[in-house]
Amino acid sequence: MTKTVLDIRKDFPYLNEEKVGKKVIYLDNAATSQKPQAVVDAITNYYSYQNGSPHRGSHYLSMSATDIYEGTRKKVKSFLNAKRTTEIIFTKNASEALNLVGYCYLNKLEKDDEIMLSIMEHHSNLCTWQFLKEKTGAKLNYIYLDDNYQLDMKSFEDKISDKVKLVCITAASNVVATMPDIKKIIEIAHKNGAKVLVDASQIVAHKKLDVQELDVDFLVFSGHKMLSAMGVGVLYGKFDLLKEMDPFLYGGDMIEYVYEDYSTYLLPAGRFEAGTQNVGAVASLGAAIDYLEELGFDYIEKLEKELMDFAFEEMKKIDFIKTYTTTEENRCPVIAFNVEDAHPHDVSSILDSFGIAIRSGHHCAEPLHRYLKENATCRVSFSFYNTKEEVEYFIEKLKEVRRILHLGH
Fold first, then answer.
1. Are 206 and 301 in contact, with CB atoms under 8 Å apart?
2. Before 269, cis peptide (omega within 30)?
3. First-to-last C-alpha distance (Å) of the chain
4. Which of these, 212, 191, 198, lies nearest to 170 by C-alpha position?
5. How many Cβ atoms sit within 10 Å of the Cβ of residue 58?
């Protein structure tokens, strides 16, 4: 039987206002999600009853930790529909996964090679490639947006050439809500000999992904945006590409043999998982995947689209609100906006006084904000556990912001 939203909310400790003791309207889901009790229990159970060092012993606790760690890898493989578990690498977050690919590409780029990016990228998917630009002499080539905040695909097709070695693109903007046509981008890139890396951090909690159907070369995401604990991320990479890459970090558990003067290293994924990993966080990722798949992505998309469409239409009715959100049907549940004459931080603080959590700032997307000619914006972002009543309350209090700041009505 399908859970109602009220049933879903009972699974999330922080959304229980009676226990928390205050009004709780959490609309900052693009920053990090709240955690269901099943995820909290997975961490607690691991540290209470299964705490061992994976891959490092033949006793019960070590083998139990190994089962949890490798069992979650199998879940991620299935979740993404990867060909093999050795294509799934655990990192501490998406930023580390991006850096891993970046460092391993240092010897694959030459002067005047190009890396293509969109202006929508999170800093993690910009700074990494700026580092490569400085180290290799490669060039960064940006794709910009049209008037509806959609990626300018004609410009992309015009700019791409055999000089482009890597296309790095977000699957969903954490500001303007745009979801580019990733499959088409990958097809065009591959025809021109380029590899494609997709930052899926803003999409994995909202939409089912199939890496084989997309034919993507690399894909990264952070667990904490999709219900798991902080401290675990994932890099998916095609095995033939991963096995050509040198290690990113060196240490225990990634070696084959160690001699006095040299070492040999494991094949992926082990080659890229040096040292003791965050097994508790990995366990939480497995529980998060179970929760999302049990709920079902068709249902998740339906709930979130209803919230997104309702909020967007209501905000458009407020004459002192400017939104920076695509009107395309295919968009993620994020609305960036500003209140006329009010600083985003003031708007956020006022809403917080009413128990409403939103984001203010540049959302780790400073180049995009410059492109939008804004220093900062406010942002609301929805999850399947939010309700229409919460959105109505947010709209009600948003209408009061200018009065509270003595800016008129």
1. yes
2. yes
3. 46
4. 198
5. 6
- What is the rounded distance in angstroms from the CA atom of residue 277 to the CA atom of residue 63? 15
Q: Are residues 191 and 89 in the same domain?
A: yes
- Kindly state whether residue 35 falls inside one of the protein's structural domains: no
Q: What are the DSSP E strand ranges found in 56-104? A: 88-91
Matching residue, tokens 């999170």: 122
Cα atoms in the 13 Å half-sphere on the side-chain side of 142:
11
Residue with tokens 């000999």: 193
Q: What is the pLDDT of residues 60-85, one digit of tens each?
A: 899 999 999 999 999 999 999 999 99
Would you give the distance in Å from CA 64 to the centre of its chain?
29
| 230 HSE (CA, 13 A, CB side) | 5
Count how many domains the chain has: 2
- What is the pLDDT at residue 409? 62
More confident residue, 402 or 395: 395
The one catalytic residue in 104, 168, 332, 364 is: 364
* Gap between the Cα atoms of 68 and 62, Å rounded: 10
- Joined together, the tokens standing for residue 301 give 């998309």
DSSP 298-331: HHHHHHHHHHHHHHHHHHHT-TTEEE-----SSB
Please indicate, yes or no, whether residues 111 and 243 belong to a single structural domain of this protein.
Answer: yes
- The tokens for 224 are 């904490």
Residue 4 is predicted with a pLDDT of 96
The answer as to whether 317 is a domain residue is: yes
pLDDT category at 317 given cuts 50, 70, 90 is very high
Q: How far from 313 is each of 27, 137, 150, 254, 317, CA to CA, in Å?
A: 17, 46, 19, 52, 7
104 is known as an active-site residue: no
Q: How confident is the model at residue 17 (pLDDT cuts 50, 70, 90)?
A: confident
